[in-house]
């Protein structure tokens, strides 16, 4: 027997009992993009692969494009490449903040087709807010000349912890009246009521920092296997993406770093009811409060952002100090997770805040933990949550088991 170091390369392990949904996943991931490659990866016969691909063609989910480079030096016609047909449906997404929201219509690949901002206050409660999102969804569809039947799903980012199993927020400090509310059901009804849709569509809900992290990692850092995004706006939260998937913890509470107790904040009351939380001393809300105490008009993190853009000296100094306070907590986060990218996003994500973060982070974290770390700011900006929400819907609907169930429901 040989030692396993020579001879022909081992064939990839076959995908057991590969369904049409499994074939779609292989094509979408780029692992197998021709009929021959699908046969090789799955171990299925040519006829079986053809039958399962035919279901995907009839559903409009897959198409055959032009052939790639010829595999043989002798030439010959290259095999046609299989491609996910992203034009067969669209996704609606919304990113809900404390004082405003953004809603968008996106392609299945994350391109924004239509978008608008909404002056909403989350403390108005779920009934009013979700109904207004339904109205906005109808406006977006009409603006792009599409009917509601084109929509395959809805994604929603919210500023609070979410139980991913139920889609309900759990004890959200800055979302009064939302705890345990049936967001998916109400938003689904708002969509059908306000667009005239003949049937409901799936609605997925997740924390805003999670979805921002998911959108940014997929769009600009797909090769980063450990990615952390920290959003600093009205509150402070983190989203973690590990090996391409959002890490949520046991019940959706992962990344809630805004409620870690910090030195020097013992007298500061947080929106969660506790004293000394990071969000109580370093969030956009906290910086705005300090500016008001200094006689500067600032009601929210957005006002702080505008002051920073104008170079207001008091705002710049307070943002840098807030960055130092957040950086002290992030030293522990970085040591624990050892990410390749740490992204700062939200209203305070600018040079003063980032400078403060770096000062304390590199001072307090072990050099080993930061040796290969990039500390950057958001590239998708206000669209990060929307792109992440859209991607969440697409990955859910076209996952192998879900795709197989949907094909059966379509009768193909």
TrEMBL record:
Gene3D superfamilies: 3.30.420.40, Winged helix-like DNA-binding domain superfamily/Winged helix DNA-binding domain. This is ROK family transcriptional regulator. Belongs to the ROK (NagC/XylR) family. PROSITE patterns: ROK. It comes from Streptomyces silvensis. It comes from the Bacteria. Pfam families: ROK.
């Amino acid at each position: 027997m040989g030692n396993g170091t020579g001879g022909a390369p081992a064939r990839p392990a076959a995908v057991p009992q590969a369904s049409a949904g499994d074939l779609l996943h292989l094509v979408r991931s780029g692992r197998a993009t021709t009929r021959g490659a699908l046969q090789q990866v799955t171990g299925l016969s040519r006829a079986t692969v053809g039958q399962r691909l035919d279901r995907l063609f009839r559903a409009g989910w897959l198409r055959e494009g032009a052939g790639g480079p010829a595999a043989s030096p002798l030439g010959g016609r290259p095999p046609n490449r299989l491609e996910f047909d992203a034009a067969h449906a669209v996704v609606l997404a919304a990113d809900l903040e404390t004082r405003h929201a953004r809603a968008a219509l996106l392609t299945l690949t994350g391109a924004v087709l239509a978008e608008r901002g909404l002056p909403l206050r989350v403390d108005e409660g779920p009934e009013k807010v979700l109904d207004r999102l339904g109205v906005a969804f109808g406006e977006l569809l009409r603006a792009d000349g599409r009917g509601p039947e084109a929509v395959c799903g809805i994604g929603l980012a919210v500023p609070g912890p979410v139980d991913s199993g139920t889609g309900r927020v759990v004890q959200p400090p800055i979302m009064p009246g939302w705890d345990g509310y049936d967001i998916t059901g109400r938003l689904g009804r708002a969509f059908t009521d306000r667009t005239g849709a003949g049937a409901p569509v799936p609605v997925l809900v997740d924390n805003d920092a999670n979805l921002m992290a998911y959108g940014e990692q997929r769009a600009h850092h797909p090769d980063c296997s450990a990615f952390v995004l920290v959003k600093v706006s009205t509150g402070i939260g983190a989203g973690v993406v590990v090996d391409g998937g959002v890490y949520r913890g046991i019940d959706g509470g992962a990344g809630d770093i805004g409620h870690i107790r910090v030195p020097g904040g013992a007298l500061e009351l947080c929106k969660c009811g506790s004293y000394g939380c990071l969000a109580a001393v370093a969030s956009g809300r906290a910086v705005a409060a300090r500016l008001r105490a200094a006689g500067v008009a600032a009601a929210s993190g957005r006002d702080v952002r505008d002051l920073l853009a104008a170079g207001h000296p008091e705002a710049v100094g307070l943002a840098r100090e807030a960055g130092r306070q957040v950086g002290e907590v992030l030293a522990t986060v970085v040591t624990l997770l050892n990410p390749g990218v740490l992204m700062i996003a939200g209203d305070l994500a600018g040079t003063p805040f980032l400078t403060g973060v770096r000062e304390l982070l590199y001072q307090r974290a072990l050099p080993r933990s930061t040796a290969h770390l990039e500390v950057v700011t958001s590239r998708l900006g206000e669209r990060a949550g929307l792109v992440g929400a859209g991607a969440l819907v697409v990955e859910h609907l076209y996952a192998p088991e879900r795709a197989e169930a949907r094909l059966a429901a379509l009768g193909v």
